[in-house]
Each structure stands twice: as structure tokens, then as C-alpha cells.
Write a structure and sequence with these properties.
The protein is an alpha+beta fold. The protein is 34% helix and 17% strand. It has a two-stranded antiparallel ribbon.
Amino acid sequence: MDGITKIENAALKVTGRVAFLQSKDQNEFYKEVSDRYTDYIEYLESNNSNDLEVKVLPLNAKTLTSDVIVEGKGGDSPFGNPSILEQIETDVLRSH
């Protein structure tokens, strides 16, 4: 973001000061912040660049090969399972 100075803990500083405003001004401030956030999320959605939302895509994936790369150490944790490298074939859903 060109022309914008990054301020350490900016949100904490601003919201701490908002507490000293009158209720009407606090409501206006938080409405403005909420509206801007909503607009920004809508912008990201319209550009398919919202990393905050998980989407399920119809990839129609097929495993071609599957190889154990690192043997697991066992135990109750999923991290004790083997590490597997798979070669897959999927549908391409969009071009870059």
C-alpha cells in the first residue's frame, strides 16, 4: 500500500482513545470501521482474493501415485502418521 505509513499497534492505540469519546462518536467510529471492513471484504470477494474464506472447489482429483516420504513414529497424534507425497491429476478451474 503506497503512501501509507505503518504504525505499530495502531488499532490498539485508536480503540483505546475511542473509549474517551462520547457514546454517539464511539458508535459513529465503530460503524465507519465496520462499513470499511465490509467494503474491503466485498472487494476481495469480487476479485477472488479473499484468503479468509475457505472454499470447496470441484477439483475432481485423482491420485496417480502415492509414496511414503517419512515414516511416522506412531502414537495418538496425527503428526505421528507417515508423511506421504502424492502425484495427482485435477481439473483446472481458472486461468492465471
